[in-house]
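Internal tracking record. Fields below are filled automatically when a chain is submitted to the structure queue. Please do not edit lines marked as system-generated. If the sequence contains nonstandard residues, flag them in the REMARKS field before resubmitting.
Queue: standard
Priority: normal
Entity type: single polypeptide chain
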Amino acid sequence: MLFGKKKEVEEENTLAADRIIMKEMVNDDELARSLVFEIRDGNPVVLNFEKLDEANGNKHLAFFIGATVALEGKTVRISEKIYLFARKEDFLDGSLRKWIDSIPRG
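SYSTEM-GENERATED OUTPUT FOLLOWS
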């Protein structure tokens, strides 16, 4: 079950930015599924879609955006092919916004 009952997260008062998982996305549906479980469980995920061709990149991006919406979360575009996916409650401590703002642009 993909969006079943949410398992309890043992966050131990860690900041959301300290729980970020960064991955380079490949064309692997099982990896995509496991990363959605990570988002559901309170671990923000940053994905780099640069190595995927356009069709697979769009397929996986749409999957993650849809899953994040279903989890009542938020998607943030970091750059052209890099995105952050997280639950809305992961933004409450302010650490994700601070992390995003610290990324050099240009």
